[in-house]
Each structure stands twice: as structure tokens, then as C-alpha cells.
Write a structure and sequence with these properties.
The complex is a heterodimer of chains A (232) and B (233). Chain A has 232 residues and is an all-alpha fold. Chain A has a single domain, classed as MetI-like (MetI-like fold, Orthogonal Bundle), CATH 1.10.3720. Chain B is of the alpha/beta class and 233 residues long. Chain B has one domain: P-loop containing nucleotide triphosphate hydrolases (Rossmann fold, 3-Layer(aba) Sandwich). The chains are: A mainly alpha (232), B alpha/beta (233).
Chain lengths: 232, 233
């Protein structure tokens, strides 16, 4: 009986007392905001970076821009995301009044862009030159070829890798707590630092992460199935 | 139509084409033969603007070929077909003429269906390339090239990736296209086809044109030792 009393008590302390569940709701909200907008930035910017690189390879133009992109990807992949977060918050936006969640969105978006650009680039490479050459001899421009022929196939090929990237991103947002963003893990940390009871806050956070990554996995599978009519 | 002057193509330091000179007139059916590594595919790809010459010039209807932007006037058919995998047969054929505004969507579809009927694939218009046999793919690729009204079609070993029984159907279609008066330049190993089809045969070896002339001249009276060997082999 004592055990259940303890559990009940622990649960009460962690979530009900003083409306502490609100911390978790706030955490979930911020985690989702950061992950969602970072994914959008990541896809958008990653696509531009990979297009610049591919265009450079194809036409031997945009040399300086390509060098910048290479350097960008190199730096982002070569440094910890937490460090990037801290540089953005404590250095770049030090004197600027900017919502802290936005710093999180920007950091994770800019970070994800580097990885997504590499995923797209390998997707473009995997399709080979034949279809590009055929498109060229038919009079299609580079961008028409990309838009109607290459990208639809790249998207289909890269979905598993992209899903992986999104899951990593969602979990990585947990370091945002370091600069004071109340994301999910930070919320659990705040609560347990009041109650000195780590069990429920940590386990519940874990379950919530699992729940969202589960949804993500299901969503990506659904997309894969939808797009898969193409080849079979 | 084509004027090739002292065309040189190097890959890294290897000279694949060594000062090629060549004139091709409208309506000609040129077949380029030669052992592998002789530079025939590279020459064809230069004519198709897929390779940039290291030096020398190629003129297409008196225009420097490197200065022509997107053009549909030089069609090309590839060994590996290169159909767009994400599009249906009909979409494959109509994409370019529609997007380059050569034809309206209705016109393109109408024209595509006529061609599909001609090659007896009208019931495959909604299939994807993965559903087709090699011979069917190549025939679709040929009518895709025809859709944009090219002035010349280049064929880069169009039957080399096909099984024996499918080669015929592709060669027959090429002969049909030839009858319409199309200028065609073909790289192939099918010597029987070449002797019936070509108005002129070009024999290449080690980056040079060693001999050229009518099929009769070349096949019955080869002048160089290399061609004699090649024809024996």
C-alpha cells in the first residue's frame, strides 16, 4: 500500500500540485514549435544549398556561392549544436531583443539545413545523369528538369533519410533548455528541481518524446507509401 | 547542318577526340562505327551538346553549338533510354513540348497519342517506364525525341542494352523515322543494319576518323588495316 501511496504522492507532486502540469504543456508547446519551424527552415534552406551546389556542378557557375555553402555545411556539421545555440544566443543576438524560442528555431533550422542539403545532394546523385541529359536534349531548362523530373524522384528516395533527420531534430531540441528555453526536458527539470523527485517528470518526458517520434515515423511511412506508386 | 572543325576532346589528360573534321548535310543518315574506346560516343555527345569541346568548333546550322541555349532542335536517344522514371509514358512524351511552350497541352497529347498508336503502345500511356520492356522503353524514347520536332536525332548505341528479340522493333522504328526524311546520326554495333540504313558510314579508331564513305565502299573495299580487322572481328 505504501508503494502506491508513494506513487500517487509523487504523481500529485509532479503534475497536480501548484498546476505543475502547465510546465509540461509549455515544454511540449515550445519543443513542437522549435522542431516544426526548424524543419521548415531546414527543408527550405537545405534545398537552396543543394540546388546551388548541383547547379555549380552542372554549369560551372556560382563558384563563390558554392564555396560559401561548402564552408557553411562544413562548419555546421563540424561543431556541436549546443555550441551553435550558445553562439547565436550569447554572441549574435546578445544585444538584440528577440524571443528566446526564436533563437531556438533559428539555431535548429540553420543546423538542420546543412544536414538536409547533404541528404538532398546524395538524392540527386543517386538518380544519375541520364535523365538530366535527356531533359537537356529535349530543350528543358535546368530548373524545369529539377522541378518536374529530378526533385520528385529525390523526394521519394530521400524520405527515409529525411524522416531520420526530423526525429534527430525533435530530440535534439532538448538541448535548448541550456539557454533557458522551457522545452520539454527543461520543463521536467524545473519540476523535479522543486520536488527532488525525478521519476515521473523524466519518465513522462520520455513517453512524450516517444509519442511524437512515433507519430513522425507513422507520418513518414504514410508519405513513402503515397509516393511509392511511382516505381512499382 | 553540322560543321565540325578540328574538334578535340580531352578527359583529364586523355585525348579522346583528336582533331575531328566532319560535315553532315540535312537528310543524311550517318552511322558511326568503330571499336570501343574509339571516341564515337564522345563525338556524338559533343554533337548533342552534352560534352563541351576542349578545342575546335562545332557549328549547327552555322551557329556555334556552345553558344546555343536550351534547344530542342538536336534530339538524342540513349543506350539506357533515360525515360523520366517519375512520369507516365504520356507525361514523358508531352512534358518537354508543353513546358517549352512548343505545343499546347491538348496539341501535345493529341500528337503523343498518334505516335503511341504508330508504335502500338497506345494502351500503355498511363504506365510508368518501370512497367515497360527495354524495347518498349527505347521506342517511347524515340517518339519522345520526335515530339519536339528536332532537325536531327542522335542515337547513342540505341540497341546495345536490349535483348536480341527487341533490337528489331527499335531498328524498324528508326527506319520509319528515317523514311520521314529526318537527319540521323547513329552510333551502333549493328553492322547489318548500318549497311542497309546508312547513306554514309564513318569508321573511327583511337579518336580519329580513319575512313568514311558509302556502306558499299567501306564494307566491300576497306582501305585501312584497322577497318579490315574490325570487320572481321
Amino acid at each position: 500500500m505504501n508503494f502506491f501511496n508513494n506513487i500517487g504522492d509523487s504523481f500529485y507532486k509532479s503534475f497536480i500540485y501548484d498546476d505543475r502540469y502547465l510546465y509540461f504543456l509549455e515544454g511540449i508547446k515550445n519543443t513542437l514549435i522549435i522542431a516544426f519551424f526548424a524543419v521548415l527552415i531546414g527543408i527550405f534552406l537545405g534545398m537552396i544549398i543543394s540546388l546551388i551546389k548541383d547547379y555549380n556542378k552542372e554549369k560551372n557557375k556560382l563558384k563563390i556561392l558554392t564555396k560559401i555553402c561548402d564552408f557553411y555545411v562544413y562548419v555546421i556539421r563540424g561543431t556541436p549544436v549546443l555550441l551553435q545555440l550558445m553562439i547565436l544566443y550569447y554572441v549574435v543576438f546578445k544585444t538584440v531583443d528577440i524571443p528566446i524560442v526564436l533563437v531556438g528555431v533559428l539555431t535548429f533550422g540553420l543546423n538542420s539545413a546543412a544536414y538536409v542539403s547533404e541528404i538532398i545532394r546524395s538524392g540527386i546523385l543517386s538518380i544519375g545523369n541520364g535523365q538530366k541529359e535527356a531533359a537537356k536534349t529535349l530543350g528543358l531548362s535546368y530548373f524545369q528538369t529539377m522541378r518536374y523530373v529530378i526533385f520528385p524522384q529525390v523526394l521519394q528516395n530521400m524520405l527515409p533519410a529525411l524522416g531520420n533527420e526530423f526525429i534527430t531534430l525533435l530530440k535534439d531540441t532538448s538541448v535548448a533548455g541550456y539557454i533557458g528555453i522551457v522545452e520539454l526536458l527543461k520543463a521536467s527539470d524545473i519540476v523535479s528541481s522543486r520536488t527532488y523527485d525525478y521519476f515521473f517528470p523524466l519518465i513522462v518526458s520520455a513517453l512524450i518524446y516517444l509519442f511524437f517520434t512515433f507519430l513522425l515515423v507513422r507520418f513518414m511511412r504514410m508519405l513513402e507509401r503515397k509516393l511509392n506508386h511511382v516505381r512499382s | 547542318m553540322y560543321e565540325v572543325k578540328k574538334l578535340v576532346k580531352k578527359f583529364d589528360k586523355v585525348k579522346v577526340l583528336k582533331e575531328i573534321d566532319l560535315d553532315i548535310k540535312e537528310g543524311e543518315k550517318i552511322v558511326i562505327i568503330g571499336p570501343s574506346g574509339s571516341g564515337k560516343s564522345t563525338l556524338l555527345r559533343c554533337l548533342g551538346r552534352l560534352e563541351i569541346p576542349t578545342s575546335g568548333k562545332i557549328y549547327f546550322n552555322n551557329k556555334d553549338i556552345t553558344k546555343i541555349n536550351n534547344t530542342h532542335e538536336i534530339g538524342m536517344v540513349f543506350q539506357s533510354f533515360n525515360l523520366f522514371e517519375n512520369l507516365t509514358v504520356l507525361e514523358n512524351i508531352t512534358l518537354a513540348p508543353i513546358k517549352t511552350k512548343l505545343l499546347s497541352k491538348q496539341e501535345a497529347i493529341k500528337k503523343a497519342r498518334e505516335y503511341l498508336k504508330q508504335i502500338k503502345l497506345e494502351d500503355k500511356e498511363n504506365n510508368y517506364p518501370a512497367d515497360l520492356s527495354g524495347g518498349q522503353k527505347q521506342r517511347v524514347a524515340i517518339i519522345r525525341a520526335l515530339m519536339t520536332n528536332p532537325k536531327v536525332i542522335l542515337f547513342d548505341e540505341p540497341t546495345s542494352a536490349l535483348d536480341r528479340e527487341m533490337i528489331e522493333e527499335v531498328l524498324n522504328l528508326m527506319e520509319d523515322v528515317a523514311k520521314e526524311g529526318m537527319t540521323m546520326i547513329v552510333v551502333t554495333h549493328e553492322l547489318n543494319f548500318a549497311s542497309n540504313f546508312a547513306t554514309k558510314i564513318i569508321f573511327m579508331d583511337e579518336g580519329k576518323i580513319l575512313e568514311s564513305g558509302s556502306p558499299k565502299e567501306l564494307f566491300n573495299n576497306p582501305k585501312t588495316e584497322r577497318l579490315k580487322e574490325f570487320l572481321k572481328g
